Amino acid sequence: MDKIGDWQDIHIAYIVAKQGTLTAAAKVLNIHHSTVLRRVEQLEQQLNTRLFHRHARGYKITEAGGKLLRVGKEIDEALGKLQHSITAADTTLQGRLLLTTVSGAMEMLSPACLQFQQQHPSVQLEIILKQQKLRLDHGQAHVAIRAGEKPTDPDYVVQPLCSRRAGLYASDEYVARYGLPNSVAELPNHYFVGGVTGFNETVPYFSWVDKSIDSKQVCVRVSETAEATRAIYHGLGIGGMQHAIAKRTTNMQPILENELYWQLDFWLVTHVSVHRTAKVQALCQVFKHYFSAE
């Protein structure tokens, strides 16, 4: 068995094992799937063993592949922690700063991000929009804006950022076709925008639709709250929107605003190891000042 010539091959094979297909792994790695295949085959040749069973649905790890997966995971976590510890030592207001949140929060966060950019032009703010919560302890992000219940991880510094109220809205186009419901009893005569099962469990409106609205009335389901807003705007159905966002849109009409409304809390989250670094503190200060002044 030859010595492994490139540790990157282990990382690539590890991602294939996690994702299950070459295409999915290539997307995560941002390389062509043929490159992924070549690197996996190269690693198998060096180890003189098969790491994956190939089948129509993708790649399934062999027993030897399982050993590689465990080692790959350890290496991946160790490198993440190393990156995180290096970042924690940063005391300058320049370079990259990773912020993660859900896509539906960008409309709310954009003005605060603009203020941060104007005050700290040497910091490159990179915003990662994912429904999946990234691991702050592994350096996947430096700051997170989390929605819903207060995070309870003991290694996280959690600060309240703001609360947002939301209600039902329909576009002028929808109202022209179907009219406005004047009571909860009239809702069965209307169509709604809902959420895809497994996504956005923290969005109160989506939960309300699942519990209170007949599935036959849900004309479309989306996995992202930002896309739900677009669907409502284009008249596909009635849907939930933050009041502040709806008020900035000229063609939205509130629906039963005194009877149906929800509140969603947002939290500013950092890891203890980077909480006191200059860039993280600067972002936290700008965000807290912006939302406290609203």
In short:
The chain is an alpha/beta fold and 294 residues long. It has 10 helices and 11 strands. It has 3 domains: 82 residues, Orthogonal Bundle (Arc Repressor Mutant, subunit A), CATH 1.10.10; 95 residues, Periplasmic binding protein-like II (D-Maltodextrin-Binding Protein, domain 2), CATH 3.40.190.10; 101 residues, D-Maltodextrin-Binding Protein, domain 2 (3-Layer(aba) Sandwich), CATH 3.40.190.10.
Strand content: 15-25%
Number of domains: 3
CATH class (first level) name of the largest domain: Alpha Beta
**How does the overall form come out from the CA principal axes?**
globular
> What is the β-strand count?
11
Radius of gyration: 23 Å
N-to-C order of helices and strands: HHHEEHEHEEEHEHEHEHEEH
**CATH-defined fold name of the largest domain:** D-Maltodextrin-Binding Protein, domain 2
Low-confidence stretches: none
Named CATH architecture of the largest domain: 3-Layer(aba) Sandwich
Describe this structure in words.
This protein is of the alpha/beta class. The protein folds into three domains: 7-88, Orthogonal Bundle (Arc Repressor Mutant, subunit A); 95-161 and 265-292, Periplasmic binding protein-like II (D-Maltodextrin-Binding Protein, domain 2); 164-264, Periplasmic binding protein-like II (D-Maltodextrin-Binding Protein, domain 2, 3-Layer(aba) Sandwich). It has ten helices and eleven strands. It has helices at 7-19, 22-29, 33-47, 63-88, 106-119, 172-178, 204-212, 225-233, 243-247, 278-292, and strands spanning 52-55, 58-61, 95-101, 123-129, 143-147, 156-171, 192-195, 218-222, 239-242, 252-255, 261-271. Helix 1 (7-19) crosses helix 2 (22-29), helix 1 packs across helix 3 and helix 2 crosses helix 3 (33-47). The radius of gyration is 23 Å and the shape is globular.
